[in-house]
Write a structure and sequence with these properties.
The structure is a single chain. By secondary structure, the protein is of the alpha+beta class. The chain has 2 domains: 43 residues, no CATH class; 45 residues, no CATH class. Helix content is 18%, strand content 34%. The chain has 3 helices and 8 strands. The structure holds zinc ion. The site of zinc ion (ZN) has 8 residues, from helix 2 and helix 3.
Amino acid sequence: MENSKTKFPVKVTMPPGLMKSSHSGKTYIIAGCMIPVPDGTTAEDMHKYVTYSPPKLDAKTWKVESSSGSTYTVTLRNGSFSCTCAGFKFYRKCKHVKKVADENR
Ligand SMILES: [Zn+2]
């Protein structure tokens, strides 16, 4: 079967992985979809067949200095804030996020 219709490299939005189907014996690149590639394709050859480009997210970041002198990164992505500090991981909110949210209202 010919796959001449497939134009390489295929643009994918997920990190590609290589898979050999035990069912058909064919080699595929898995990146959210299955892309048939020639037998013997290795991870080093993957760039010939797929281009990995992560989806562009509308993300904004701020550096926020805490009272203890550490700097944390607050990120706004898809309308929700996150912070790199331990408090945020635990409580899903923190004063850094609050500070940025207050300033960007
Ligand atoms: Zn924080």
